[in-house]
Amino acid sequence: MRCPFCRHADSRVVDSREVDEGQAIRRRRSCSECGRRFTTSETMVLAVVKRSGVTEQFSRDKVVRGVRRACQGRPVDDDALQQLAQRVEESIRSAGVAEIPSHEVGLAILGPLRELDGVAYLRFASVYRSFSSIEDFEKEIADLREAIAGSTEPDGAPEGREPEDPKDTE
Ligand SMILES: [Zn+2]
């Protein structure tokens, strides 16, 4: 690993520890030329196997893009999408496998998305599970209602949408 300060090609590891419950290794390195220290992080490459058999590296951005489409016109901001993608990655990584079929990425999205926004969830699920009839939607909506009824979290008013007080400008 090249030194980020002087570009020297050689460095030595002075400390190495597991982080994220063993999902990653962080190494403290010392440059043998300038003596400065820097940190590197090593994570397992998570490969997604597409239906065609082609594999590509798992990407949170791709999850965000896929879900954003389903969230059009819904009160879901970018932070929420990023958090969702992070949860998806964590749940996939926690399975401890190096490769995952792309449809299982979709599966991992469904749970967090359902908590995030029911309408976006239905849109995503309808494509992902290729709903072919109204009955498919009806069944999914019934499940969704049940899940909402069963949740203890109150469905409060939308947050962060208070308009600025116009009375300030007299
Ligand atoms: Zn250096």
TrEMBL record:
PROSITE patterns noted in UniProt: ATP_CONE (PS51161)
Cofactor (UniProt): Zn(2+)
GO annotation terms (biological process): negative regulation of DNA-templated transcription
Name recorded for this polypeptide: Transcriptional repressor NrdR
Details of cofactor binding: Binds 1 zinc ion.
Pfam families in alphabetical order: ATP-cone, Zn_ribbon_NrdR
Family: Belongs to the NrdR family.
unnamed Zn finger ranges: 3-34
PANTHER family in the record: TRANSCRIPTIONAL REPRESSOR NRDR
Primary role: Negatively regulates transcription of bacterial ribonucleotide reductase nrd genes and operons by binding to NrdR-boxes.
Ranges annotated as biased composition (Basic and acidic residues): 158-170
Ranges for domain ATP-cone: 46-136
Region (Disordered): 147-170
Entry's Gene Ontology molecular function annotations: ATP binding; DNA binding; zinc ion binding
